[in-house]
Amino acid sequence: MKYKQPYGVTDPNAPYINGDPSVGQAGSIPPAASIEYPQREIVNFLTDSGLTPTNSDLHQLSKSVQIGTVMYGIDVGPVNAVAITLTPALAAYVDGQVFRVKIANSNTGPATFNAGPGPVNIVRRGGAVVQGGDLPAGYMTFLSYNATHNNVELYGASFAPATFVPILGANTAPIPSMSIRQACSVRRRSSTALASARRSSLDQTIFTPFKHPTATRFKFKTSPCRPARARGRRAVSRPLQTRKSTH
């Protein structure tokens, strides 16, 4: 949809002006297209998103964006040839364009994707060819078009057929954990090698002996391997001693 300038004005970017009778200024005359086209554009987006336009709901445009139907498709292709039909029909792929697809058939090897403009290869992030099971049937898959390589990159899989997990799980390595008893045992075995280290530093690192890059370090005000020291000394009663008389 193009911008429609006021009626009778040749400048295609001319602004609209309010009329002011007090100074004899005439207001802009809106052409019919300036009113009709925006409405048509919005209504088309609502219907393409599967909504029925109604005057009783003035949030349908926002709902259409939330639904995301115009970028979603159910796979209708055979094995190893993912295919979807979008509304409106896609004329050409655009760099960075994202597609949400529900896979119909688990792939058995290299696969292609076609959203209308033609088939392109599906690759793993980094460019490697997809392997069997990377596209499990019934699961949502995110594909992003890369114009540099003319392919779509696969997101949303762990690339392990037997252990398919969502994308967040695929990018999160398990963090080794230890019980306090195990940690204290490690500390006792390492006491000789760590004798010169400060105790506060030891208490902060004893729970991450594997040096995992994303491991959480647990800090304690006092070491969990030894009881906390008493804040004050307990008074000890002693019997009074009297000096012996020299007389």
Structure description:
With about 250 residues, the chain is an alpha/beta fold. It folds into three domains: about 20-65, no CATH class; about 70-170, no CATH class; about 175-225, no CATH class. The protein is about 20% helix and about 10% strand. The chain is built from five helices and seven strands, in the order H-H-E-E-E-E-E-E-E-H-H-H. It has helices at about 30-50, 60-65, 165-170, 180-190, 200-205, and strands spanning about 70-75, 80-85, 100, 110-115, 120-125, 140-145, 150-155. Strands 1-3-6-7-5-4-2 form a seven-stranded mixed β-sheet, with no helix packed on it. A hairpin with a 4-residue loop joins strand 6 (about 140-145) and strand 7 (about 150-155). Residues about 160-175 and about 200-210 have low confidence and may be disordered.
Topology:
Elements: H1 32-48, H2 60-67, E1 72-74, E2 81-83, E3 98-102, E4 112-114, E5 120-123, E6 140-146, E7 151-155, H3 167-170, H4 180-189, H5 199-205
Parallel strand pairs: 1-3, 2-4, 5-7
Antiparallel strand pairs: 3-6, 4-5, 6-7
